[in-house]
Amino acid sequence: MLKVGVLGAGHLGKIHLRLLNESKKYQLIGFYDTNPNYANEIEKEFGYLFFDNYENLLNEVDVIDIVTPTLSHFEMAKKAIEAGKHVFLEKPITNTVEEAEQLIQLAQKHQVKGQVGHVERFNPAFTAAAPKIENPMFIETHRLAEFNPRGTDVPVVLDLMIHDIDAILSVVKSKVKKVNASGVSVISETPDIANARIQFENGCVANLTASRISLKNMRKSRFFQKDAYISVDFLEKQTEVVKMKDAPNQPGDFDMILQNAEGVKKQIYFDNPEIGANNAILDELETFANAINNNTTPIVSLEQGTEALRVAKMVIHAFNE
Q1: 132, 314, 154: which is closest to 239 by C-alpha?
Q2: Backbone angles phi, psi at 292, to 5 degrees
Q3: Helices marked H in the chain
Q4: Are residues 66 and 149 in the same domain?
């Protein structure tokens, strides 16, 4: 079992603490939080050992799980990596792309592994759909959330849209060519609603919308490719795959047949994958343990987390153009 320590015991940090404590791949050593009064309450309520000094926690573990505000990610991860510890970083990886690139270099130098917490990669609806997504040419995503003051210290792009950016980058095997975007600040000092159009070198176009001032929650993505339409509902954990194939010479009574202007007939059929139940956060933490133990590349590597941040920053920069 890998010895692990958690930095940050806020809303998400407490979830990580509980799951790591239950995991058979980790031994939870304890946690560090900058608020000692709050940390002592967590220790009394749940029994997790509180370390009042970050360096002391580092000395006792193999892995550091960083669940703190983004501004602190770089310094915390840098210390851990230089101490030879593997690091799991909540998204976004760091505050700037330059910081993220430094972490990649440090991890290579000290021969440790890092993973970024883009949890939607482990959503069962997406993992079921991903093998069926082949060369998509148009993608549309909507990630809408009811207002919550937590997270409003950063633009909605870094708070919400970056999930969809990462998912899209994982299935579009092409470099980003151009980004157009607009954002509006309604309640916060930074944009609360944003739309981005991302063009890739291979011709694929992705249209992303994110809002944290919606009346209802929605997390849907749609992928369009040759002879297929794939819909992923991250919230309801549902996937729908609609495909087309050449129509049979003698269609059945219930076959759905389309005929284009040239007279070509296609049959529409459903190829919906089976979706299993899982805990996505536990999965991302335990697959990171597997990557460490088996010396393989983490599913969401530091490099991939950096690319997601790079494109997110391009979206934010496009607001001002």
Answers
A1: 132
A2: -70, -50
A3: 11-22, 36-46, 54-60, 73-82, 97-110, 124-129, 156, 162-171, 280-294, 302-319
A4: no
**Same-domain check for residues 270 and 288:** no
Strands 205-211 and 193-200 come out as antiparallel
Write out pLDDT tens, residues 160-205. 999 999 999 999 999 999 999 999 989 888 889 999 999 999 999 9
Please state, in angstroms and rounded to a whole number, the distance separating the CA atoms of residues 153 and 138.
31
Do both 83 and 184 map to the same domain?
no
User: Which residues make beta-bridge pairs with 156?
Assistant: none
User: Do 91 and 159 reside in the same domain of the chain?
Assistant: no
Count, residues in the chain: 321
Of 205, 188, 186, residue with least CA distance to 196: 205
- CB-based burial of residue 219 (10 Å sphere; 0-12 exposed, 13-18 middle, 19+ buried)? buried
Q: Report the pLDDT averaged over residues 219-227.
A: 96
Sheet holding 2-7, edge to edge: 26-32, 2-7, 63-66, 86-90, 114-117
Residue 165 sits in the same domain as residue 314: yes
Predicted local confidence at residue 264, as pLDDT:
78
* Average confidence (pLDDT) over 273-297: 96
pLDDT in tens, 105-139: 999 999 999 999 999 999 999 999 999 999 999 99
